[in-house]
């Protein structure tokens, strides 16, 4: 799962760091081919058709700060991955080259139709969506994050010094991704012994 | 979205009503072919491979009773549909024959790994999953509900007199399904004028 779900403050740093890319004049959107990442000439990522990807999980108002308020409005995070990468993970317990993980934020609502309690997902995206892509030949660290502020615009690269990269490297369970929050993939990684050393210790200590 | 997300009390009625089916001796599980519904000789529904279906939405602790507590533990509901039906809905705004909608309940957790707030989905299913299937030649009302108490067992038919049927008929936005809670499909149904009269009135009055 992507940083924003956990680290709202750090994300602001990411967003600010990405700002020069947002102002780049070449932002032509194209439909990306199903699955593998595709790029514009300026290095932007084309928007993936992620609502037809494989679904991994949803969180709500997640944060590593127990006092975080999220600004008053509740938000769901939905995570998707391209089908080719999903099938490879099921077979191997880790991600292949050309993996495309997408985190979509949606405003949570309570009152609507016959519902009066809990939360459901609204039509309104919260802050667009973000992509974590593995492209070994393209990125020195194999993975990169891209920020999409609208569904029909290309995504801008978040620079490798942003805190999302170090947080994922330090705390994510498998290959810098938060598989500890993907309920159908975590048991596969456990069985195939692909968990990071840090998370494997936590998992065997009952943190699962 | 299926009844349980909204009507915990009514679901108990459904579950009790389905009990004779649960005790039926013929409960051999088979992997269903991708997409279309498939049945055992006794009429049970074979378990669909729904985690590779198209994702529609997630709710948490939804209920039409504002004082409902859900028994103390929070629960996510994830909704999936077979890809063939999804693509047909995108084109037409309603569901074709052989639609298979799946509602999966998962226990929500708060503390785990670096997360200390909000909720994420655990590995633990809550009460298995349920399926709403459209099979016009098979069911007098075109649609039927099936209850799966385990992922690798066949599903048992919920009798047509159960309150889930009447609730869906009365309150669901499109063709007895709760499209009002599927954020990417609701605008399609609105544009294609396939909303029920009751929900269309509510929607145009600002209930969306």
Distance between the termini of chain A: 16 Å
Counting DSSP H or I runs of 4 or more residues, the number of helices of chain A is 5
Give the uncertain stretches of chain A in residue-range form: 1-33
So what's the overall shape of chain A?
A: globular
Major sheet summary line of chain A: 6 strands, antiparallel
Helix fraction of chain A? Answer: 10-25%
**Strand fraction band of chain A?**
25-35%
Instruction: Find the CATH superfamily of chain A.
Output: Cytochrome P460
Instruction: Please tell me how large the radius of gyration of chain A is.
Output: 17 Å
Verbal overview:
The structure is a homodimer of 208-residue chains. Chain A has 208 residues and is of the alpha+beta class. Chain A has a single domain, classed as Cytochrome P460 (Chalcone isomerase), CATH 3.50.70. The first copy, chain A, has five helices and six strands. A six-stranded antiparallel sheet of chain A has the order 1-2-3-4-5-6. In chain A, a hairpin with a 7-residue loop joins strand 3 and strand 4 (117-134). The radius of gyration of chain A is 17 Å and the shape is globular. Residues 1-33 of chain A have low confidence and may be disordered. Chains A and B meet through strand 1, strand 2, strand 4 and helix 5 of A and strand 1, strand 2, strand 4 and helix 5 of B. Strand 4 (117-134) of chain A pairs antiparallel with strand 1 (54-63) of chain B.
């Amino acid at each position: 799962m992507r940083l924003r779900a956990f680290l709202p403050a750090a994300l602001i740093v990411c967003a600010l760091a990405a700002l020069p890319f947002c102002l780049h004049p070449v932002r032509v959107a194209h439909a990306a081919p199903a699955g593998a990442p595709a790029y514009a000439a300026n290095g932007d990522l084309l928007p993936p058709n992620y609502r037809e990807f494989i679904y991994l999980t949803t969180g709500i108002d997640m944060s590593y700060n127990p006092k975080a308020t999220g600004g008053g409005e509740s938000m769901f995070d939905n995570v998707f991955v391209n089908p080719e990468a999903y099938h490879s993970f099921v077979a191997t317990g880790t991600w292949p080259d050309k993996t495309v993980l997408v985190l979509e934020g949606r405003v949570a609502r309570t009152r609507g139709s016959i519902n009066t309690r809990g939360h459901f997902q609204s039509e309104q995206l919260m802050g667009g969506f973000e992509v974590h892509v593995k492209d070994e030949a393209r990125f020195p660290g194999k993975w990169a994050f891209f920020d999409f502020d609208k569904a029909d615009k290309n995504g801008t690269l978040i620079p490798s010094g942003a805190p999302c990269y170090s947080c994922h490297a330090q705390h994510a369970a498998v290959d810098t991704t938060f598989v500890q929050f993907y309920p159908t993939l975590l048991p596969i990684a456990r069985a195939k012994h692909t968990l990071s050393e840090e998370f494997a210790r936590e998992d065997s200590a009952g943190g699962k």
